Amino acid sequence: MDMTNCPECGVIAEIVDRHVLQSTDGPIEHARVRCAEQHTFFMPVASLERPPAASRRTGRPAQR
Q1: Once rounded to an integer, what is the mean pLDDT over residues 2-10?
Q2: Residue 64's pLDDT band (cuts 50, 70, 90)
Q3: Structure confidence at residue 56 (pLDDT)
Q4: How many C-beta neighbours within 10 Å does residue 35 have?
Q5: Does pLDDT of 3 surpass 50?
Q6: How far apart are CA 7 and CA 22, in angstroms?
Q7: Domains of the chain: which residue ranges?
Q8: Which of 11, 43, 44, 46 shows the smallest number of beta carbons within 10 Å?
Q9: 58 pLDDT above the threshold of 80
Q10: Nearest CA to 36 among 17, 61, 63, 1?
Q11: What distance in Å separates the CA atoms of residue 51 and residue 3, rounded to the nearest whole number?
Q12: Mind listing the pLDDT tens digit for each residue in 20-31?
């Protein structure tokens, strides 16, 4: 399971799908992201934020 943070609310989110789209600058990989709050986005993979290591292991936000 590939994880990231939701760009809207910051909670852990799953990357559910990936596609490569053509652009004038060449192909750009995009991902469909869905978080626990049910926000859904389709955005460039380069824009994704990686969650803290503890979040990837437990599926919960890391303690601060």
Answers
A1: 92
A2: very low
A3: 47
A4: 20
A5: yes
A6: 23
A7: 3-58
A8: 46
A9: no
A10: 61
A11: 7
A12: 999 999 999 999
Average pLDDT, the chain: 84
CA distance 41 to 49: 13
Amino acid at 38: Q
**Which fold would CATH assign to domain 3-58?**
Thrombin, subunit H (2.40.10)
Q: Which strand ranges, in their side-by-side order, compose the sheet holding 12-21? A: 3-5, 12-21, 28-35, 40-44
Instruction: Give the whole-angstrom CA distance, residue 43 versus residue 3.
Output: 14
Q: What is the 3-state secondary structure (H, E, C) of the chain?
A: CCEEECCCCCCEEEEEEEEEECCCCCCEEEEEEEECCCCEEEEEHHHCCCCCHHHHHHCCCCCC
The residue to which tokens 């004038």 are assigned? 24
34, 42 Cβ separation under 8 angstroms? no
